[in-house]
Amino acid sequence: MSSVQAAALRLGDSGSDVMLLQQRLQSLGYDVGRADGNFGRRTENAVKAVQADKGLGADGIVGDATWNALRLSGTPVNRGRMENISVSRILATARSQQGVPYLWGGTTPNGFDCSGFTQYVFGLNGISLPRTADVQFQVGMPVTRGQLQPGDLVFFTTYAPGPSHSGIYLGAGKFINASSSRGVSIASIDNSYWGPRYIGARRIIR
Questions:
Q1: CB-based contacts of 22: which residues, under 8 Å, 6+ apart?
Q2: Which of 18, 63, 163, 177 is deepest in the core (most CB within 10 A)?
Q3: 184 and 152, same structural domain?
Q4: Final residue of a structural domain among 69, 100, 133
Q5: How confident is the model at residue 153 (pLDDT cuts 50, 70, 90)?
Q6: 125 in the same domain as 30
Q7: DSSP of 103-114, one letter per residue?
Q8: Spatial distance between the Cα atoms of 135 and 125, rounded to a whole number of angstroms
Q9: CATH (domain of 93)
Q10: Active-site annotation holds for 110
């Protein structure tokens, strides 16, 4: 089973892990400028600030201790060490993004694709998910349709065979997702479009 591993980040790095770091720093009130996935001087200074605030060595390098301080520890999600993660916070974060437009490859509130949206929502709440729906489908605990609970990831087959679309189950047969036609919006898991395309779910928070 795949898991998400912690990575040390430092000045000059770039990518989705850096963007998650920047978004988390922003959510805690630290100034990183724009969350663009590039680890520049402003991000380094924000990391040093949070390290100083948490009593860590302020070297600007995001290792295990800093990830833990930010509650983005990178602990494999299939180990269930999520005591401090609230389902209600996950759902509130997801709902707060309603109306954000769809953007292929999008991972920020400027525009999301399906897995960029789920990765962003969980990332802001301390859980690192893989970037794409097919890999997200490999983490967490499989649950049947009848066992679905709010906060579960739900998966559908759309433009490609297998798990090519993901969303977050809200309860009462509803889920929230970034769809190509409606952007971040709520839909019924059993409607005429999504119902036949549903292929499974994974529980990340236990």
A1: 32, 35, 36, 37, 43, 46
A2: 177
A3: yes
A4: 69
A5: very high
A6: no
A7: -TT-EETTEE-H
A8: 19
A9: 3.90.1720.10
A10: no
Predicted confidence (pLDDT) per residue in 34-71, tens digit: 778 899 999 999 999 989 888 898 999 988 788 777 76
Q: What pTM value is reported for the model?
A: 0.63
**Do 123 and 28 belong together in one domain?**
no
Domain of residue 35, residue span: 16-69
Same domain membership, residue 135 and residue 116: yes
CA distance 90 to 104: 23
Exactly one of 68, 125, 177, 191 is catalytic; which is it?
A: 177
Q: Does residue 5 fall inside a structural domain? A: no
List 68, 84, 165, 191, catalytic entry: 165
* Sheet (strand 153-156) strand order: 141-143, 198-203, 153-156, 165-171, 174-179, 183-188
Own/partner long-range contacts of 40-44 (Cβ < 8 Å, ≥24 apart): 40/11, 41/11, 43/11, 43/18, 44/10, 44/11
Q: Is 84 one of the catalytic residues? A: no
Sign of CA dihedral 80, 95, 111, 42: negative
